[in-house]
Each structure stands twice: as C-alpha cells, then as structure tokens.
Design goal:
Number of helices: 8
Radius of gyration: 19 Å
Structural class: alpha+beta
Order of helices and strands: EHEHEEEHEEHHHEEEHEHEEEEEEEEE
Bound molecules: zinc ion
Number of domains: 2
CATH topology of the largest domain: TIM Barrel
Strand content: 35-45%
Shape: globular
Length: 347
C-alpha cells in the first residue's frame, strides 16, 4: 500500500480564506502534505479557473462547501456547483449524488463562541437525511472556536491551539457509530477548515486558523494500492476512490506524525484494509501497527471492545460487526488522541 497525507477542508480567497490557492499549496508543501482539497463556500470558481493540479509537489483538488446559515456540506469530486439549500439539505445531498460526488456533513455539532460574530454557529440540524457519504468528526477551526469562551482563553488558544482540540467531537463520533451500526457504510473525515484570517480579540489582533499550523494538526492519510503517477486526472481519481471507500485514517500529526499507522484484518492468506468488507471465516484476526508506543482501542459496533498497548497489536475473536481503531499517544502525564481510523466491516 502507498500512503498519502492530506488536508481536506480548506478555504481560499475564492471565498472567505485569506490566501490564494497557490500560496496555500506552498504552505501545505512546507507542512509535508501530499495533497489538499480546497472547499470554498458556495463556489467552484477555483476549479473553473483551472487551479486543480500539482503545485510544489502538492496535488491540489477542488471541491466546495455548500449551505450558508446551517447544514454545511462538503461536496467533493464534482464538476458543477451545487446550489445551497439551508432548509432542506437532502436536496444538496441528492445533487452531489447525481454528480457521483462525495458528500460530507461538516462540523455537525458546532457550538460557536460568544467572541466571534455574536456567537453565530453552523450546526447540522436535519438528521432525517440519508445517502450522504461521510461525517466530519474532527475540525480544527470549528472546535477551536467552540473553546474560545473568553478573550483570555482565546489568546491562550492562539498560542496553544492543541488545548482546544482534545480529540474528535464526541457527538459527531457517536453519530458516525450510530449510522455504521445500522449498516450504513459512511466514512469519517477530519480537516483544518483553515481560513487564515486575522481577528480582533479584545485589544489583540491575531491569526485564527493559520494555514501552516493547522496543516500540521488534523490530517487524513489515504492508502492506495498503486503509487500516484504525477498525472493529475489519474491521481485525482485514485485519491477520490480511496476516500470514497474509507481507505484512510484521521491523524493529529502535530506531536507525532501518524505516518506508518496500519489497521487490517487478516486470515491465513488474505488481508483487508479500512473501508473493506470481510467475509467471515474462522481465522480472522485484526492487526494494528503504530510507529510509536501507544494505547490502542478497538471499537466494535460503536463500543470499546479491546485495548492494547505498545507498537504492534493483534486482536483475535473477530466475528461479524463493524470495527474501527482509536489510538492515543503519551503526552505529559497522560495520553492524547492521535489516530482515528475508518472502519472495516465483517459480514
Ligand atoms: Zn462550514
Ligand atoms: Zn469550512
């Protein structure tokens, strides 16, 4: 398998981000990313202006974020703009599906902060929807804002954003499990939602969600069977196919890069990856590899099932269900959430 690190929720100057796509790609390159997905509000103008492609060795892909007042929806792998429908997000979901795109419910439980725009927030309000492809469980900017409860805390979090990001949003994770336990093969995503804007916070003028810092925090690591070729169209297809399937994990890469993590289920002669469906057999075991000693939780059908410590982990007694992995690395006197995998289904 080949591994590519990327960030998949980013705003540029085509909407309310502060930098042009070219400059964002340069920052992604410095942060060591292989690809980024730009998702500007209500527009695909970046795509229409032919900004997709390799820049400084980073593959830049362009999707969009639909909806304004609530029910924000990331629309990837599409070529026509999707119209907003704040009140009936199912229409937006259906439009992405008509284009065979990938649609992700963004920051569904955002709370907002009294210090930003009178506490305005953009949660997902309609859970009667169906046929979407994913839920964003970990969002740098949104969760950062949720924690800014006072000016002083805001200033502290500018210098130490990690304190506001102690893991994926618990309600979003619970929603993911709820859908998956119903047998719906939806994917979990995470991203920066970087805008790089400066804000006045009391007497301070500060950079909120800076691109380069947030590109070192919540990233996705995608696994492909073949290496990327350097040819935009082929590589775009390969990456989107792997994302659609769920062949990736979300890593908080700031303290320890999650590169090299692996989660598979194996029998005597075959191995399945995240996103795969495994036919039940008698000899199934799950294997997890982390590049640093860590605490690994195997989550089965939404509940903690087995825990293991170290760098290499084997879980046996695999029977039908949906399995995902949570990894925590050592940090100060305790542990920090590090890696959240996509799921493997056993039938
Ligand atoms: Zn949003
Ligand atoms: Zn956004």
């Amino acid at each position: 398998m080949y591994e590519y690190a990327g960030n998949m929720h980013i705003h540029s100057s085509y909407s309310d981000g502060s930098l042009e796509i070219m400059d964002i790609a340069a920052k992604a390159s410095r942060a060591g990313l292989n690809f980024i997905i730009i998702t500007d509000h209500y527009t695909l103008n970046g795509l229409y202006d032919a900004k997709e492609g390799y820049q400084q060795n980073v593959l830049v892909l362009i999707g969009m974020e639909a909806n304004e007042t609530k029910n924000h929806y990331l629309c990837l792998d599409i070529d026509k703009e999707v119209k907003n429908n704040n009140e009936n997000p199912q229409v937006v979901i259906d439009e992405v599906n008509m284009q065979h795109g990938i649609g992700i419910i963004a920051h569904p439980f955002e709370k907002g902060s009294p210090l930003f725009a009178d506490g305005i927030n953009f949660p997902w309000t309609d859970w009667n929807v169906h046929s979407f492809q994913g839920i964003e469980i970990w969002n740098f900017t949104s969760q950062w804002k949720d924690h800014v409860t006072s000016t002083l805390k805001g200033v502290f979090l500018i210098f130490y954003p990690h304190a506001a990001l102690p893991g994926p949003c618990p309600q979003a994770l619970a929603k993911l499990d709820e859908y998956q336990c119903r047998g719906e093969k939806i994917i979990a995503t995470g991203g920066s939602d970087a805008h790089g804007y400066s804000m006045k916070l009391g007497m301070f003028h500060l950079q909120v969600s800076p691109y380069e810092t947030s590109f070192k925090c919540i990233n996705v690591h995608v696994l492909t069977e073949l290496p990327l070729t350097g040819e935009v169209k082929a590589d775009r297809e390969m990456l989107y196919a792997a994302i659609r399937k769920g062949a990736f994990w979300i890593g908080y890469d700031y303290f320890i890069d999650s590169r090299g993590f692996r989660f598979s289920i194996q029998d005597n002669d075959k191995s399945w990856q995240m996103g795969d469906t495994v036919p039940l057999s008698r000899h199934l075991k799950a294997q997890v590899v982390t590049t640093a000693p860590a605490r690994v939780k195997m989550i089965k059908n939404g509940k903690e099932w087995q825990v293991s410590s170290g760098k290499s982990h084997i879980f046996s007694n695999i029977d039908p269900g949906v399995y995902r992995i949570e990894v925590y690395h050592r940090y100060l006197l305790g542990y920090r959430p590090w890696i959240f995998s996509n799921s493997i289904w056993v039938e």
